[in-house]
Amino acid sequence: MAMEDQPAAAAAAAAAAKRDDSGACIDRQPDAVLHRAGPIHVGGRGSRTGASAAAAGIRVLKRNMKRVGSRGCMTRKSRFGSRERDWLKSNTQRGCVCLYGGTVDPQLTTSGPQASSTPQPDLQLVLCSTSTTVEEMCAQRDGQGLFVQLHGDLVRRLEPTERPLQMLYDYLAAMGYADPVRVQQEAANSDLSCLIRFYSERPVNADQQERTLLKGVFSVRKGKTQLHKWAERQVVLCGTCLIVASVKDSLTGKMHILPLVGGKVEEVKRRQHCLMFSSAGSQAQTYYVNFDTLADYQRWHRQASKVVSQTVSLVDLSCYSLEAVPKYLFYCQDVTHLNLRHNFMNLLGPGGLLHLPRFSQLKSLNLSHNRLGVFPECVCEILTLTELWLSCNNLHTVPVQIGNLQSLQTLSLDGNHLSSLPNELGGLSQLSSLGLSFNDFNHIPAVLERLGAVDKLSMAGNQVVCLEVCALLSMSHLKHIDLRLNGLRCVKSESPEAVTLLTHLDLRDNCLDSLDLTSICSLETLHCQRNQLRALTVGGLALHKLHAGSNRLSAVSVYPVPNQLTHLDLSQNLLEDLPDWVCDCRKVELLDVTHNLLTELPSRLLNSLSLRKLLAGNNRLQRVPELLDHVPLEVLDLQHNKLGELPESLFFKALNLKHLNASANNLESIPPSGQSDDSLSTLQELYLTGNNLNENCGALLVGHHNLRVLHMGYNRLLSFPASKLSKLELLEELNLSGNKLKSIPSTVSSCKRLHTLIAHSNHITVFPEILNLPEIKLVDLSCNELTEIQLPESLPPSLQELDLTGNGSLMLEHKTLNLFSHITTLKLDQKSTTTADSQNASAPWSHGYSEMSGQRNKLCVSVLAIDRLGDSVEACYGIFDGDRNEEVPRLLQCTMGDVLCEEVQHSSIDSVYMSNTFLTSHRKLGMAGQKLGASALLCYIHHESSEPGGYLSVTVANVGTCQAVLCRDGRPVSLSKVYSLENCTEEMERVKLSKAIITEDNKVSGVTCCSRLLGCSYLSPWVLPKPWVHTEPLSSQDDFLILGNRALFERVSYQEAVRTVQAVRDPRAAAKKLCTLAQSYGCKDNIGAVVMALNIAEDSCTCEPPVYTTEPRGLPHVSFPVSTTPAPSDSATLSSTSGVVSEFNSETSASEVGSEAGSTGSDEHPNSGAAPRPERRCSLHPGTTLCGIMVPGSVGLGSHMGLFQRQPSSATFSSNHSDNGLDSDDETPLQGVISNGSKLEVEVDIHCCAFQLRSGPSESLKDLDFEKGGSDYPNGKVRRQNSVVVSATNGCLLAVCGREIADLKKSPSASCLFGKKPSNGSVVAPEDSHNLIEVALEAPKKKSGYFTAPAQQDPEDQLIVPPCLEQEVREQLKGQSPLVSGPSAPSTPPSLKDAGWDQSHPPPPFTPSLAPGPGVIPIIKPEVYDTAL
Hints:
Elements: H1 6-18, E1 34-35, H2 51-56, E2 59-63, H3 76-79, H4 82-89, E3 94-100, E4 123-129, H5 134-141, E5 147-150, E6 155-157, H6 164-175, H7 180-187, E7 196-199, H8 206-212, E8 214-222, E9 231-238, E10 241-245, E11 255-259, E12 264-267, E13 274-278, E14 286-290, H9 294-308, E15 314-316, E16 337-339, E17 364-366, E18 387-389, E19 410-412, E20 433-435, E21 456-458, E22 466-468, E23 480-482, E24 490-492, E25 504-506, E26 514-517, E27 525-527, E28 535-539, E29 545-547, E30 556-559, E31 567-569, H10 580-584, E32 590-592, H11 603-606, E33 613-615, E34 635-637, H12 650-653, E35 659-661, E36 685-687, E37 709-711, H13 722-725, E38 733-735, E39 756-758, E40 778-780, E41 801-803, H14 814-819, E42 825-829, H15 836-842, E43 845-852, E44 861-866, E45 875-881, H16 887-903, H17 910-924, H18 928-931, E46 933-943, E47 952-959, E48 963-968, E49 971-974, H19 985-993, E50 1014-1015, E51 1028-1033, E52 1038-1044, H20 1046-1051, H21 1054-1062, H22 1067-1080, E53 1087-1094, E54 1141-1144, E55 1185-1186, E56 1189-1190, E57 1234-1236, E58 1239-1241, ...
């Protein structure tokens, strides 16, 4: 909507002046209804005042809220008038609450080309204070109540005394916002509705209604005979029964109840849309129901089919936001199991909990997660209950009436605030399972002594500091005890009497330093991982499994010898020798002693006749004893030791060996596969990376006919025997990276099952013959010496990824590129537009990165790399790990650089702008971030703002498990913090205090092990987006920086990562080596690594100091396009040695974007008062080229200028996918466009929210003529068609756009994201004039070529210099420097102002940039929108 005009404001002010205290002045404008409180003097249309309004201080503005981004949408400035904005600014305890209507499903989003014109529900903007209650707001707007929805999930009715604005502020403060002004601004942001949303009425969810209740008036006939006639009756399907009324229009009188569980529902073919419902049993009844429409028929058939298929009378009403049980459900007296978890059930009311005793046969009742606050005593009247679940209800006491439930067998009270139990609970003789985890108990309740049937006690997450073993003597019935996460410091066993029945004891994640459990003689399973144990003593008489990893053990005592022991985990301890009793175990099958200090393995251990899996990696082993006889060993892990050789008889004595990992040793040879040519080897996986093996080892692999995975990277192979490779016919994955191979044998074509070939960092000159293999998926030949590729006529359809980067001499023809067009991810070097000298001079760093998908079909790790951020010497790097989802990492990759660029304009405090960058990115994930999340790490290299010419610093912020390591003087320095429950004690305590349920694998609600993530907002407040922020000054002693995800640093230590990068000069090759090593060490997950080589001078300043301007804060740099000339490059030849990666992605991911899927730019905020920072651009590649055009004067502005990398920022497209309407020869060529026959390249960057072009002085400035009559906008107004930077050359307008329309509609986030289609819907909001992608949809088409701009300027897109500005423009152009940049202080558009209110600035001078044209000068008015890519 438009802003309030002057006459309307004046009229409103006059009306306000005439009213009295009790009067009201109502302006009945249809689009605005205003309730104005007495003491708040704010102007506007449509005001009304009352006594309640005066007390509450509330103003309501009603808007017809269209989709954000549409041309008719309501901008922030148009939401409020100037007086309203002043009122908000005067006090941070004031703010705006957005109230949505309840007529549309909150999850419903619009997408597609019609989305921009589809209106959303009416939106009411309520101006109030943090003290305003729901009761006051409802009285002001004549409402019945307010509702709140968190993270698009359940909807709860607010209590009359609750304060919505305070709730909103508390939510933002819990997220991590600290500044009250910023909290006030964020609260007014429309994107916040995906996190917290208020409703003026309960939203209607049609799907929920269908699953809980179906009713209508239909034609009904009873019985199978024709004696009964058809009649119109009210029919209800609820719970487990079909209910038929005796009269037509009401449910009064006699009701006919038909139980359906175990019955039948069948289609009646003789009548259209007719179903037959039959009950079970010998006295079965039948009803025929004839429906009016096919939709009704299908709904009833679908729901009834679920009911009749049940074996028990179960009614599942969980997660429906219910406040009461549906009244029709009480007709279902056969219900035995009722699930009401995750609702908001009330005690009172027609369907409240007080009425639950009406279910006479109820056996199982689940009321978990209902915010009850008190134990519902009414359930103690349901004497038939055998199971009762009351977890996570904020309960503090259990009533004595619990003793009435004599049939109770299971009672779950987890996640409450209980510290004691009533004695009456001891009378429940049948109670066998009692859940007390995550409460406030400081001892084991004494009432358990009387609960003789309870055999499992779950008390994880309580406050039991000391465990008295003698207390367990009186609880001899207990067999399982779970005391995880209690902060246990001691276990006392002073009594000489033994505990005889306890078999399972879990003491993980406590604070024990010693443990003696010899008094528990029947112990079978012991978990004591992640303590601080230095001594462990256990009785071995009945011991089956012992898990004692991640401690400080140097000795473990078990007596007598545990002859029943099958699993032994002693990993990550300080053992120098294995205890003797380990070798005496007769049944041990799995032994894990990784990460210890072992120097040898006993011969008796390796020759054990029971051992099947031996993990002995990361020790100090120098030899492995010989095998004396055949052993059943199946898995042997010996990586990271000091082995010079393996036992000669290994492969023909261990015939069951299927997995061998001997990476990171000193092996020079491997043992033969057998004693003769006929080998019986069953080896399937062999990892030998990081040894000293030569090509002679290839002959020894022939006997392993079943080999599927072979890793021999980073050895000394000069070649691989061709005849030997042909015999590995079952080979599926081959990794030969980091050797000195000059070729891959042609016999690799015999490996018909090969799907992965990784041979980077070699000297390969000839492309191997692998493109004929039917199952090939991934080929990585980067960092080699390829010169040409011989291709077959067609490529295998299975090929998904081809990496050819780092091959400086590789020449690819246009035909070759077209043949590669179907490959999902093609990585190539792009010809550099700058010389190496200029790149090195411009920035003291360079980067390389690598991503590997492991065994998964999708890559869930994304990398952000910006070597040059803005005009000053600054850079931004990031890595994002989505674990099992690829959508959130790609969204963060697209948006986070832009958000950072905007946040640094608002504050110079590192902890502030980095935290706000993460919090804003979390909000902008939209609906994608409600259920999905990702670990994130962002690294920002910058000058210290206090000294413009001072030293460089690196600021690192992270959430989750992504990590950053700085190499300083050859030693690793950690710059990040791992936010996982296992590694961070403070976070574990915080999550426990918030009463989260932590499962046995240390995951919050069984979902994630991280306590801080971007996304996963439904796990709030347990999982937060607030990052760890650390700033480290850089010096000449800093060599490089490594970023990696969890999978990388779980397998590669900091020290090894530093040594690895030191041995490799090229950052890209170093990153690839890190990922290859992690895979060879056993990692199966997605791996990502970024290596930044630093070259910091002694004075820490290798560039010109940042330029400070008087430009108002909050404005990213926006420059005007200038005239450009074509770049001297051949479109059919792509070669480079610059290390920049380009990817051709022809398989576009289809995901239409919803209005609430998360925007991709960042909202602007007012000046926070900090010192101004230099202007920055937020592009993945500092763009001095636009649409493939080289801009004069751009050399030296930054490394890799104008190139496109793996980041989803730009792409080159094949003409095979063009659906344009004209041939390329139909029109004259456009100057500045690289063309080669039917191909035309346009390189673009769709991430930029601001572009800058620099150019040399125009030679035709003197000849420019201003056409006074050409302006479409009189009175000096300049028109701007779209938020797109365009470059005009010879009268032709080149629009910045990304793809063809067909590809754009399939893109997962409306950008080049190089992956498969996401499985969970839209991710980025395609806002009409806010998003460059949507502009591309409107771009003209041509039949061939990747993209071409219109041949002539469209008057709609021309921006004309008004006559009143001609003289000023001429004078300014005379003083232009050779490098023409944008204006230093462009005017601020409405969307750049505060979040919901305006901020006044004096109008700055306007400096246009000119391009040659036929009499007119296209000028782009600077405008940055609320959300933009």
